[in-house]
Amino acid sequence: MIETSNVHFFQNKKFQTAQLGCFFRLPLTQENLAYATLLALYQGNVSHRYQTMQQQAARLAELYDVNLSIFPQVRGNQIIFQVRVEWIEPSLILDQDYTNAQVVELARAILLEPLFTDNAGEMLRYTKNELFDEIDEFFDAPDNVAFYDFYQQYYVDHPDYSRTLFGDIDLLHKISLEELHDFHRQLLDAPALVIGTERDVLELTDLVMAKLVTQIPGLKREFTEQNLRIAPVEHDYQEITKQFGAQQAQLFMGYAVLNPPINRWIGNVFTQYLGGDESSILFRNVRERLGAAYAIDALNYNDNNLLVVTAGLEKDKVEASKLVIKDELQKIAAGAIDRQLLEQAKSSLVRQRKMLFDRQKNIMAVKLNAELRGVKESEAEIERQITLVSQKMIQDFASQLLLKESYILE
Known about the structure:
Elements: E1 2-4, E2 7-11, E3 17-27, H1 30-45, H2 53-62, E4 67-75, E5 78-88, H3 100-112, H4 121-138, H5 142-154, H6 169-174, H7 177-189, E6 192-198, H8 201-211, E7 238-242, E8 249-257, H9 265-275, H10 281-289, E9 293-301, E10 306-313, H11 318-333, H12 339-356, H13 360-373, H14 379-387, H15 391-399, E11 401-409
Parallel strand pairs: 2-6, 7-11
Antiparallel strand pairs: 1-2, 3-5, 3-6, 4-5, 8-10, 8-11, 9-10
Helix pairs in contact: 1-4, 3-8, 9-12, 9-15, 10-11, 11-15, 12-14
C-alpha cells in the first residue's frame, strides 16, 4: 500500500481489473445535489477531449471497454461526488499499445476538462432531457414514489435533508452552462480523495501523481468528516396517506434513534434480526402469519439516526400490519428476544461482510467509507464487534426508538 496525504494506492492481487476512484465531499444541500446530479450525467456523456457522446463512448470501448461511473451519493449530511474508472489489467492483454497511461489520461480528460465551450449548450439540453426521462421513469414505480415522499415528509423541518436523489428538481431546469462550469471549479476545490488498485501499484502511483493529483486543489484539504450524523428529527408523530392507484399499498414507518450506541453495528444487527431475511421477526409475523406482505424489510440509516420498516402490502391489511410491527418492536424493547434468531442475524451479517470482498467495487466502497469516517477498522475487528452484540444491546437499541412517521401510499 502507498499513501500520500489523501491519495491511497493498494496492490491488486486478486482481480483481473484495476480501479481508480476520485471522490469529492460537499455539504448536503438540495442545490449541491442538483448540480452534482446534472454534472455527473454531463461528464459521463462528453468532455472537452471527446465532444460527442459517440466519441467518448468509442474511446472507452477502444481501451477494452473501460467502465466509467460518475454519480453523487448522499452520506449523512454530506454528498460524495464519485468518479470511478475500472479497466482490464494491461498485463493480461497482448497489446503493447494498451497501457495504464492511456486509461489514466482518459480519466484525467473526463474529470478535469468537461465540455464548457460556447457551443456546448445543446449538449447540456440533451443531458437535461436525458435526466428528466430518468426522473419520470423513477416516479413511475410506486415503491420509488413512496420512498421519495416518505423522506420529504420525514425531514419536513429540514429541507436540505429531505431528498437523497436528484436534489432540487425545479433548479435542474434552470442551471446554465456557466453555472455548471462554476460548480465544477468549486468541486475540484472541495475536500478530495483518490484511491487506486493495480497489480503494478508503483506505475499507477506515478501516473496518477503526475496527471491528476497536482490538478486537484481539494486533495490538500481534510477529506475525513467524523460528524456525518444528522440529529434525530424533533417533530411530533405524523400519519400520512396518499393515493397512487397501485394494486398494493406501500408502507413506510420511520423511527428516530434517540441515543445511538457507540457500536455502530448494533443497528445493523437489529435490522437484520427484525426484517433482514425470511427468518426475521417481521417476515414471520407479517408475511407468513398475517399473510399481509408481498415484501417487508427493516433498514438502519446510521448517519440519519433513523430506522425504517418498509412493506408492500394488501391494502386491506395495512392497519393490521402496522399494529404487528409496533407490537414486535415493543416486545423487543421489553426484552423478548429470540436468542437463536439473534445469533443467525449476526452470522448472516458476518457472511455478508465476507461476500463484499468477492467484488472489487465493494472493496473500493469499504476503503472510501474508512477514509470518510476516519475509522481504520480491520475486518477482524468489525466481525468481532458484530459477534459481541448481545440481547441486552438489542433491547436497549429498541428502547431508543420513537415512531415519528407512518406513511402509506395506496
